[in-house]
Amino acid sequence: DGYVQGNITAQLVVSRGKIRGNIDANSVSLRVGSDTVSEITSTMLEVDNDAAFIGECHIRPEASGGFRDR
Questions:
Q1: How far apart are CA 27 and CA 57, in angstroms?
Q2: What is the pTM of this model?
Q3: Closest CA to 34 of 8, 14, 56
Q4: Fewer CB within a 10 Å sphere, N or C end of the chain?
């Protein structure tokens, strides 16, 4: 329902809108209706059947803790 153009760093990302930018989060959920073009780095990624995702996904072990350095 929203639009983000830019990088996101957060503990939790839940999207039902458009994202154009990299995501670095502990947990990412792309819900029905989301349209995401991104490089995602996360310990957990959920993508609903009717969500659109174009890009790369890097799953990091939970034990690493924290976000990657940029």
A1: 12
A2: 0.84
A3: 14
A4: C
